[in-house]
Amino acid sequence: MLTQNLGYPRIGGQRQLKKACENFWAGKINLDELQQVAYTIREENWQTQLQAGIDLIPCNDYSYYDQMLDMNLLLGVIPERYAPVTKVAGNNEIDLYFAMARGYQKNNLDITAMEMTKWLDTNYHYIVPEFTGKQQFKISSEKVFEQYAAGKITLGDKAKPVLVGPVSYLLLGKEKEQGFERVDLIKKLVPVYVEIINRLIQQGATWIQLDEPCLALDLSKKEKEAFDFAYRAISNRISGVKLVVATYFEALLDNTNLALNLPIAALHVDLVRAPEQLDEVLALIPDSLQLSVGVVDGRNVWKNDYEKSLALIYRAIEKLGSDRVIIAPSCSLLHSPIDLDLETAIDPDIKVWMAFAKQKLKEVAELKQIVSGNFELLQANKKAIASRSASQKVHKQVVKDRVSAITEADATRKSAFPIRQQLHRERFNLPYFPTTTIGSFPQTDDIRQLRAKFKKGDLTLEQYDYALEQATIEAIRWQEELGIDVLVHGEFERNDMVEYFGEQLDGFLFTKNGWVQSYGSRCVKPPVIYGDISRPADMTVRWSKFAAAQTDKPMKGMLTGPVTILQWSFVRDDQPRDVTTNQIALAIRDEVLALEQAGLGIIQIDEAAIREGLPLRKAKRPHYLDWAVSAFRVTASGVEDKTQIHTHMCYSEFNDIIEHIAAMDADVITIETSRSQMELLHAFANFEYPNEIGPGVYDIHSPRVPSTEEMVSLLTKAAELLPAQNLWVNPDCGLKTRKWPETKAALENMVAAAKQARTQISVEA
What we know:
Elements: E1 2-3, H1 16-25, H2 31-52, E2 57-59, H3 67-75, H4 83-87, H5 93-102, E3 116-118, E4 125-127, E5 130-131, H6 143-155, E6 159-164, H7 166-171, E7 174-175, H8 186-203, E8 207-211, H9 221-235, E9 242-246, H10 256-260, E10 266-270, H11 278-284, E11 290-296, H12 306-320, E12 325-329, H13 348-351, H14 357-371, H15 376-389, H16 397-404, H17 417-428, H18 445-456, H19 461-482, H20 499-502, E13 506-509, E14 516-519, E15 522-524, E16 528-534, H21 541-548, E17 556-560, H22 562-567, H23 577-597, E18 602-606, H24 621-636, E19 644-649, H25 658-663, E20 668-671, H26 681-687, E21 692-695, H27 708-721, H28 740-760
Parallel strand pairs: 1-12, 2-6, 5-7, 6-8, 8-9, 9-10, 10-11, 11-12, 17-18, 18-19, 19-20, 20-21
Antiparallel strand pairs: 3-4, 13-16, 14-15
Helix pairs in contact: 1-2, 8-9, 12-14, 16-23, 18-19, 23-24, 27-28
């Protein structure tokens, strides 16, 4: 019996890669120094997996920014607009690579970044491949071959190259012109995959992993045919290597026969997300195929329940024999924090219930040992699992009773939107194309150092609060001078939009080093929901009330919504997710009412992750959308009609859920649209979205500063699709990760764009 891992976190235990990349972008270190940091992390990762006893260890899962961006470079899928970057003296592959990810605004060039969106239903963002009808593919990078060569030195035959599979690579991309379907490019793409695989075979590869998460999605007939064609074409032109195709995040369902009959050596299935699929897989699996059973959760922090995992493993062994079963995590451990041993402050009673990436490797190895007869490991695991289920730290009856008492009235605003809209226009007297930002302003080194000093006890609470007050006042004065219509306080007191709230809610715990990559150098440290959730005191009122008192302009109260808090936390797995969400919703509702009572007339409840939580299969979506929308409405519906409720959503495709977005009944929704050139607005236009909307005109995930003319052009496109009187002007997202100079320059252009729009774009009263 073999064990394997599908992927490992690449940021380093102390976020070394993040810091190195940011220093490289800032010109503080050179390429050799950046590469040395990456080399050290990669070698440490391999040694960790080797020492854990994993039999097949991934290579090429390491990336400076994103695995899909790596594939773009490998396959030569480089949009034409980046050609000038390669012609700048001194530029090399890494400059092109980062230009595609972040945009390029120097050397008299101004090139936008590639589009970014969520990796299936995770909070990880990937760079979206851009395809044209005449797209050509060729090997354009040596990274995969160099990483395998290095891996082979460290790992020997355990080294297993990892690539995004050809069909998923196409399906997760986007057509950049009309007249073709990207899946039709498969016949051009497969020969390059064959060339890559054969080169890896020549280097000595015995196993190669191809990630095909799209096998767990709803597929058209043509897409299914693309899978069959691709793998038969590859199989016919390679020999001497075993291909393992990895699926994850959902059951195969109607794609089961397709996946099981691909000409490959092994198929990986996610039995954490979809354990029910095992019976059908075992009933249909051909005699030639090995089965990789993903029984250790790669996306959460809870200790594996060995009894449950062993029940699945033994069923597979009974049917296949132990030599055809591979034990593995459910998916890449990219989505997990790195090492629980680094956490010294977690309640020991709770810590014993947890496992991070390093510990999950141990769980995979221990499951194999238990199958081989080491039952002492099973008994120790049983003890930990039992202590959690019986713990009084987890369960609070008063919270459970309050959730049970939620009614339809709790999720319904007093009046319909047209009535509320008129009240808002009278109350706030805003111009057409009102300007605002999404909430956060740059978290400078000074602010971070201030927070660190306070946590260490080097500052008193009074000193800390005074410094934050001064930063808040400065931000307000700057917004007033600039002419922004609806202000924000900047959120200088907040570390993270979810962590900040979790720290003030019962039922959450926090880690010191539990970082996971969100995109590029952006790392987040999700809270851990271990028990029933309640709000013991006000969370944001103090700072929102202070900020509102500093200005005569409208000030937004800023909150994170229940679904986003759920999605961006590590969630307890011992009760349904909708129950946990409703617990959070009631806590946020109490905060909304407290903000309204404190005089805040505009309250933003961010639901950046509501689309992210959508089940991958359409048949499962209605139930999720019902409870997710209801939870948002519970948070927002206690206020008076005169209070304006905003929400914000990040990178999302809205076409298939637009009616549910409308059902949230937010007075104003702000969304990302700049990278897609307002393309996402077509869903709102086709639906005739009734409420107000702020389509982002400034891509905050890139350091480039868009011009006023560029933003006016975007607003013109928006006004062609939606009623101009309902449009707001704002960035794509919060500005926390940006620097002040680029932020100020971009927002100055944004305000100027709004003023131009008021004179150039017709608005019907």
